[in-house]
Design goal:
Layout (H helix, E strand, L loop, with lengths): L12 H7 L5 H15 L5 H13 L1 H16 L1
Helix pairs in contact: 1-4, 2-3, 2-4, 3-4
């Protein structure tokens, strides 16, 4: 049985660009999680460990997402 999971729209141009090169559902979920976490971080241990791994693998993307979200907050 397959479960249909709705695909969330990315909030940042950085993640939108990254998603153009990703075709694996797990990678899509990681990029969307990165973006969501950067917008609203949590101290939950599992989330912190997951975000650390994603950031380590995607340092430039994490910086770009953080920068875009900070720029929006300043407006």
């Amino acid at each position: 049985m397959h479960t249909i999971v709705p695909r969330l729209e990315p909030r940042t141009a950085a993640v939108r660009r990254a998603l153009e090169h990703v075709h694996c559902d797990a990678a899509v979920a990681d990029l969307l999680f990165l973006e969501a976490w950067e917008a609203s971080p949590t101290s939950e241990v599992g989330a912190v460990l997951r975000i650390a791994q994603i950031r380590r693998a995607n340092r430039e993307l994490a910086d770009a997402v953080r920068g875009e979200l900070a720029a929006r907050a300043r407006r």
